[in-house]
Structures are given as C-alpha cells and as structure tokens.
Amino acid sequence: MRRIAVTNQKGGVGKTTTTVNLGAALAHLGQRVLVCDFDPQCNLTVHLDVDPASEAPNLYDLLHGRASLSEVALATEHERLWVAPAGVDLAGVELELANEVGRETILGRALDADAAQGGESYDILLVDCPPSLGLLSLNALVACEEVLVPIQAEFFALQGLGKLLEVVGLVQQRLNPKLRISCLVSCRYDPSTNLSRAVIADVREHFGEILAETVIRRNVKLAEAPSHGKTIFAYAPDSRGAQDYLSLARELLGAVAGA
Amino acid sequence: MRRIAVTNQKGGVGKTTTTVNLGAALAHLGQRVLVCDFDPQCNLTVHLDVDPASEAPNLYDLLHGRASLSEVALATEHERLWVAPAGVDLAGVELELANEVGRETILGRALDADAAQGGESYDILLVDCPPSLGLLSLNALVACEEVLVPIQAEFFALQGLGKLLEVVGLVQQRLNPKLRISCLVSCRYDPSTNLSRAVIADVREHFGEILAETVIRRNVKLAEAPSHGKTIFAYAPDSRGAQDYLSLARELLGAVAGA
Lengths: 259, 259
Ligand SMILES: Nc1ncnc2c1ncn2[C@@H]1O[C@H](COP(=O)(O)OP(=O)(O)OP(=O)(O)O)[C@@H](O)[C@H]1O
Ligand SMILES: Nc1ncnc2c1ncn2[C@@H]1O[C@H](COP(=O)(O)OP(=O)(O)OP(=O)(O)O)[C@@H](O)[C@H]1O
Ligand SMILES: [Mg+2]
Ligand SMILES: [Mg+2]
Fold this sequence. Notes:
Two copies of one chain form a homodimer.
Chain A: E1 2-6, H1 15-28, E2 33-37, H2 43-47, H3 59-63, H4 69-72, E3 74-75, E4 81-84, H5 93-96, H6 106-116, E5 124-128, H7 135-143, E6 146-152, H8 155-174, E7 180-189, H9 194-207, E8 211-217, H10 220-224, H11 232-235, H12 240-258
Parallel strand pairs in A: 1-5, 1-6, 2-4, 2-5, 6-7, 7-8
Antiparallel strand pairs in A: 3-4
Helix pairs in contact in A: 1-12, 6-7
C-alpha cells in the first residue's frame, strides 16, 4: 500500500480539496483508496458527507488505541473510495498524547497492526493534515513513505516550504528513513496574474524535478462540491477541477510505473 | 489600549493580510498601532520586512520571560505602526509551555507588566494568530478584549465558526470574562460567484449584528505587497485593497465612538 501524507503548514492552499478529489480520481482509475482526516477541523469528513459528531469510532479513537483502522474506515458512495473520519475531539490529542512514549509513531503502528490482522487491503492511503507541523502531522509523516505538498502560487508559499523541508529531513533522520517528498502540486492556480507565474517559475527553478506537470486551476465547482458532500466527480464530472485531478492521478500512477 | 485578536482556525482566509493592512490603515488614520506575529510561520514578520531568524529579541523570548514587549517591538517604515515579530523557534512553545502554570495567561501578563512599567503607549494592538486553536491562539484570546474573525465566503468558513464560538465561550467563562467577538470580516471576496453570495447571505442571517459592512474584495495587489515587504498603503495606495482596509479601519473606529 502506497501511503502519502498531504501536508503544508500554510493554511488554505488546497490540502483537503486535493486529498478528497485526488483520492476519488485514483479510485476512478481503478485503485482502492482510503482517505484519512487528520485535521481537527474535520473538513474532509464533512466534504465526504460524514458527521464529525457521530458516535461511531473515528481517528481520535484509533490514536487512543480504542479502535483499529478497519473499525474506523467507512465506505463512501464512490466505488473503491473509503474514508477514515476525524472526530470533534481530535484537537485534544496534541496535549493528551504529548507525554506518550513514541507519540509520533501511533498512526504508523496502527496501520501496520491492521495490515497484519488482514484488514481491508487498499492500494493507496492519503492522509489530509492540519495547517501546522504538530503531533498530528508528525504522525502522518512517520506513517507514510511519501509527502505530497499542495502549494498556492503566492508569496507566502515559498516562505513555508523551507520549514517543511527541514521537518521532513528531521523525520527522515530520526524516525522514518523511507520518507521522501514525492510531489509538489500547484493548486488554486490563477493563470491571469503575474504573481502566479512568477512564483511557479521560482518553484520550478528550485524544485523542478518534484513539481507535478499537472496544475490544479482555480475552479469554483471545487469550492461548491463540499457543500453537497460530494467529490468533484459526483458533483461536476465535466468540470476543469475533475479533469485536473484526473490528470494528477494519472501522473501519480505513472510515476510509480516508471519508478 | 484596545487589544484585538485576529483569529480563525481555518487556514488561508486572510488573517495575516488583515492584521498588517488594517493595522496600517488605523495608523494612517492617526492611531498608534502595534501588530504582533503570534504565528510560527512568521508570515506577518516577513510581510513587514523583518528577518524571523534575526538574533534580536522576539515574541518567543517574551513568552519565555526573557524580554519585555518594549524590547521586542520594532518601528516600521510606516509612521505610527510598530511590529512585535515572531521567531523561527515560536513553533516550540506549544510543547515547551504545556505544563507551565497559567500557560494561557503569559501574553496577557506580559502586556500588563509592560504598561505598568510605562512602556510605549499604543492605541490599538492587533495579534495575528496561527490557523489553529492551540496555546498561542489561547494566549491571544486571554490577553485581548476583542476578537476579529476574517472569513472567506466559502463552504468550510461556516463549518469552522461554530468551533471558534465554542472556544471563545470557554475562554470567556474560565479565563477572560471581557472577551467578545466584535467583528466578522469577509475577506478575499469574489462577487462573481453564487457561492460567495450564498455564504455571505448565510453569515449575515446568523451573525448579522457583528458582520462588518466593509467587504475586503479579492485584489492581487494585496497578494503582491508581502513580497516587497510593504503594507498595501506603501505598495499600492490607490488599489481596491487599500480602499477596503481604510474603510474597515474607519468602521472599527466608528464602532468605538458609537459604543
Ligand atoms: N482549485 C480550486 N479552485 C477553487 N477553489 C478551491 C480550489 N482548491 C481549493 N479551493 C477552495 O479553497 C479553500 C481552501 O481549500 P482547502 O480547504 O482544501 O485548503 P486546506 O489547505 O485544506 O485548508 P486548511 O489549511 O484550513 O486545512 C476552500 O474553500 C476550497 O473549497
Ligand atoms: N483580499 C485579498 N485579495 C487577494 N489575495 C489575498 C487577499 N487577502 C489575502 N490574500 C492572499 O491569500 C493568501 C492567504 O492570505 P493570508 O496568508 O493573509 O491568510 P491567513 O489566514 O493568514 O493564512 P494562514 O492560515 O496560513 O495564517 C495569501 O497568499 C495572501 O496574499
Ligand atoms: Mg484542510
Ligand atoms: Mg497567517
């Protein structure tokens, strides 16, 4: 199973939108995909029409050792797409688990345990992270082998990348030698401004070999889909947003094939 | 001194852009303004052309009791506008201060101590918060009497407001009875989509009496200004962005006058 953490501590760049719709696009192309909501805001959970206040077990219970991944994962209305929802209590884990031994490895160990017990088998796991580099994001970086970084082509995007690379480097050295940044994805791209073009040119110069060819363009259908509890493929399958995420999914699958 | 926390745990809604440019607009109208960068991303610090890696004392030192506000605050090139910068270490305080007695009251006590010792006197203090409701944001909510909430007229904006109101309520009950949400401000507004109009109508229905009349429209000049280390007034004084933040500043000052 390919495990990918979708993270960027800069807020509002398109992490949740990418996790949901890239996940759905990969499922569309025949992959069995599990998307996890590791953000206490529960945006991904709501985007896929699950109630964050539901009594059913969620990732908060998994982190406290009270539920396995198989008990948390739910089927969605989309074939081959499952979701492991967040709960309203998830914000508490940063402090609740602060003194736990191996606190950064809880998610990784839970995923390994589930696979060992013959849980549902997925081809790809995507973890949506909160806009910070705290304990939840660290758990995702330790549990995964790849990092996918959505960026918005604006000035602050460049400032945050340095810090993110530093943290990924530390996790590689100390906790997870397999971890690598596999892909930077330009999201919410507005080709009409000089700013966007200038920032993307800058990113291509410094990170050219990992910058995805596919650019996710600004498309209001992507911002409307969550209010209907649907992925872009169920809400507006002919939209630019659906095309762009399908092209990104193909690029991601092609990257492995060529590896 | 009017103390205002600029916060919303939803990422990328315009917190930093609002703190810098509302601060500059208030200074433009004759107020003495201090803006504080309480976000470990250091976006506000860089926006005002200060180096987050500088050796000079910053808010990280203030939180550890090693520097007072007067020692941290720096003049900017704008008359009547000062900045208390963040440092690259600020991300560490969530865990470093987790077990400190009264950990949520550190900023408030430092501001009180500085005023008592005859520190620089400001009319208005604005605190830019990170996209989370952790220890840094709680310190801002305890230290301030007002909360200004930038919102982006998109679906996830509504989802987060409930949680923010809940946390503000808890802070009011347990730590700071004076705290109130004084203003919701629609930022990055794009009048051309049905989504924006529908969300704003929804917000007006639920929060009409605190929703600012002024709407901050999408304006690329606001996104370009940070790469020049300038406020919108120094970078593009005739832009829509400058007009909108000036109108918001007038509204904020009028609100007090009428109080
Ligand atoms: N390509 C796009 N076109 C138009 N709107 C988009 C696009 N991608 C995301 N959005 C919208 O932009 C906003 C931010 O996106 P999203 O919530 O996915 O970002 P995020 O990085 O997950 O934010 P946070 O840091 O709060 O977790 C949302 O309102 C979303 O609907
Ligand atoms: N009115 C506007 N018009 C155009 N761009 C804007 C506007 N307001 C903010 N921006 C841009 O949108 C992006 C997000 O804004 P900003 O960084 O101020 O949000 P934030 O809430 O502080 O984000 P974070 O949650 O990461 O702290 C930035 O690239 C900024 O330049
Ligand atoms: Mg998100
Ligand atoms: Mg900010």
